[in-house]
User: What shape does this take?
Amino acid sequence: MSHSNIAIFVPHMGCPHCCSFCDQHTITGSVSVPHAEDVRRACEQAWDEVSDRSETEIAFFGGSFTAIPRDYMTELLDAAKPFVGGEGFRGIRISTRPDCIDGEVLGLLKSCGVTAIELGAQSMSDRVLEQNERGHSAQAVYSASKLIRQYGFELGLQIMVGLYKSDIADERATAQAVLDIAPDTVRIYPVCVLEGTKLAELYRKGEYRLMDFDTVIGIAAEEAAAFSAAGIRILRIGLHASEEVGSGLVAGYYHPALGEIVRSRMIRDIIEKNIPDGCSRVEVRVGKSLVSAAAGHKKCNREYFEKRGIGLEIIPDSTLDSRQISLGGEVFDCV
Ligand code: SF4
Assistant: This one.
């Protein structure tokens, strides 16, 4: 999941939608709105600081970039464009809603130097999208993805796990739809219930019952394994900085080490599927980035197998890639 970017948060003021999980309406007025000068300053500061500019993107995050007023959108992109290409940064990344994509805006983004577009798909169940007031269908994700590809952009999809009214079948169907679309990248966001959102209201009324944490971790691990096996790069699992929690966390699946917890579960699943019946000790060789993930967050993998009478021996192995594990001579990729 090594990926570096200069993140510029563009709050979506005046968004006409009211997605169940979004706190943009609550935080409007309390966040600053970046302008061209802020973009230039962020790029100049990063110019010498990043270890490899060719691996770094200027990323406009925070909502529906293509739905903000055109003048403002081009002001931000024009400020970023001179820093891209040649000895500069790799490209410009934006994120937006699937129903805010058409040929006209894609042409404009292309001319402004944008290279990667991420779509907030969230779920590929129309029922879940409707219950969470997204205001677009799953078909909109398929159509926008196709068009983005036709225009030659890198395509990313963002999905959420554990939305209101989403069950395990919906989660699996969403993962399968992502596999069918085969984006270049994906971000997996287990839901965070934020203050001031519809989800917070439903949660407090007892109408939104969260799946337990372990179930959601299992789903995210399953998805990460499937995406990774299909060659889809996983850019992020879970919100990783507390400032992204905006107006405050009410409930949900926030954990500062969520990515590591999901990675540990992936390793546990790999071990479980591949150990012979009746064994009492398993030797797992791991690349250097996976030594602690193999033992599990707070050693949970060790404990999990110990309860089943299986001792876990974790051996760092420099012949493996940093994110590979080897079990019984077979090598598996992790994220
Ligand atoms: S998540 Fe939904 S409500 Fe929030 S800014 Fe995006 S489209 Fe608007």
About this structure: The chain has two domains: 4-256, 274-333.
